[in-house]
Amino acid sequence: MAQKDPGTVRSITDLARIAGVSVSTVSRALTSKGALNKETRRRIQELAAAHGFQLNVAAQNLRLGRTGAIAVLLPLGHERGQHLSDPFFMAMLGFLADELTERGYDLLLSRVLPQGDDWLDLFIRAGRVDGIIIIGQSNQSAVLDKVARHYGPMVIWGAHSARNAYLTVGTDNVAGGAMAARHLLERGRRSLAFFGNVGVPEFAARYQGFLSGLPEDMRAQVTLVHAHVTPEASYRAAADYFAGGGRPDGVFAASDVTAMSVMAAAAEHGLATPEQMSVVGFDDVPLAQLTNPPLTTIRQDIRAGARLLVDLLFRRLGSQPCESIEIAPELVLRESS
Amino acid sequence: MAQKDPGTVRSITDLARIAGVSVSTVSRALTSKGALNKETRRRIQELAAAHGFQLNVAAQNLRLGRTGAIAVLLPLGHERGQHLSDPFFMAMLGFLADELTERGYDLLLSRVLPQGDDWLDLFIRAGRVDGIIIIGQSNQSAVLDKVARHYGPMVIWGAHSARNAYLTVGTDNVAGGAMAARHLLERGRRSLAFFGNVGVPEFAARYQGFLSGLPEDMRAQVTLVHAHVTPEASYRAAADYFAGGGRPDGVFAASDVTAMSVMAAAAEHGLATPEQMSVVGFDDVPLAQLTNPPLTTIRQDIRAGARLLVDLLFRRLGSQPCESIEIAPELVLRESS
DNA sequence: AGCGGTTCGGCAAACGATTGCAATTGACAC
DNA sequence: GTGTCAATTGCAATCGTTTGCCGAACCGCT
Lengths: 337, 337
Description:
2 copies of one chain form a homodimer. Chain A is of the alpha/beta class and 337 residues long. Chain A is built from 14 helices and 12 strands. In chain A, the strands form 2 sheets. In chain A, strands 2-1-3-4-5-11 form a 6-stranded parallel beta sheet, covered by helices on one side. Chain A binds a DNA duplex (30 and 30 nucleotides) through α2 and α4.
């Protein structure tokens, strides 16, 4: 007979009282660690189950000096609205949630507006997480580089650059850009345009790859149209471009969302895709197959990317050696080109 | 002169030693609670800043008996792939992240495959969060109802029903459906079809509202096409329907993604939108304005929804009275109808 | 000098777990 | 009867905070 209301078992202490053993014994029974009589362990585990008792994760983590959570950060550096709408980042987030849950970690989501150069340091020192995954380096590569020097468990989704010390997983954007170029050439397109914000490292690499896939004499002819990532902004940029008389016969867009904007704006100006103009996107978001016409695009394998990000992070947590990884993109042919 | 390496200040104890005061004083200084000499407080705060010290959130939470985190759960009940791709849920997630961060709470993201009827109880008993937001009741309303009886801080995004005890925030789906019906009638459409999975409570309400917006004699004529939510599945359903000779002149789709599938499949079968067929979607996801033709749709205010969800949850945490809320939808006219 | 009233800041007990160490027990051999 | 050893379990310190309670110091007043 317990002293207090035995109805609810809140702590290991309560359970110990009921079981007539010490808290250490209960702890050992429930964590399956340490030597303990088989029979005792079984008894306590059954008792715990009967009372619907589970260990308090917060206390456990405090004692063990860990948090059991991984942060996924979305820096909103130059494009405030980007991650709100970009299906690519969101799909990535979903896969990351799955991968982390599977490993018994929680996923702490945070969107950050990078302020100054110590937002990341502040976050790390708060000690809320055991590791950090950053989706998109945005314009923060200097900050990331600095932090990476003294903080290990951090992996970034995005373009790899030899200049940067931090660990990345990302699609080979240069190769992807080159694929798009070759494809448009094969389709006989010669008057080409690239739509995207080359201030974003990933997009810059796609643009550079695009140029590198063209014969030298064509490179100077490519029109670069600066388009932000949100649907609204990229539509505006494209509409302005067409209104100003732009009439390319081949377009490579930095993302599928941008490609959709371009097609919409072009249609508005009486320019038919793919009859008069071929369009190639980047990402292969799920909706790309539903556009009218369905979108030819350079596919990034999001699921594989998420898995690699998590793998790499856990190697880091286990102090194993790691290297940045580039994933090969793939051309997906549909009717827009 | 400190005994140990004074280089890193890890705990309040270290800081107390350096400052020459007791830990209680440091705690009071840093939390701005309790009476403390202004000068002392300032001094300690400066010292903390100088050493880049921040309170350990885990320990703080343990002591305070809270976790500082709110869970956002995505139940994948009947539609495995839904949340992966559905831009609506993802946009919601983004706004929730902002709202919670603003209130100083962390957002713990988890996608759950509901197993049996105690997955939610198990999650709650793990004690990792102070409250729960569930996006979409999926087919779990029985479970939610049971849990709501003994667990307060939980709010669900989705359709409200008088049958359910749990707290919801959601669009008035019935009104939205009726809007779509009236709009199609105004456009002179008489041969109507609804695309969607009416096993999902929200979609069922949209369908019901749609019917209620029609004159009685038309209701029986409406074709109900069962389409799942993923782009692939809904495209297949629509393609099969058109291949089977379906030729409606007005379509109301349960979501924008479904509407896009319908337009794509229709185009494939030589059916032009909006000339031969008007299409109305639901959600107004950012991409809806970029479809070809741009999509007429019933808009849900996601940002307001997220804010209300969080507001309601915190009222519950503060034991204030709350009631479920329905948000008025809005018809957004574009060229698909 | 003595007294009541403020302020300030320290002591130590929590929060709910883990774990090194030591104590207890029983079996067994000498 | 005593010593040894292994198996099992308990004690108590610890993780980094918060906070009720109490004592010390100081103030002005009689």
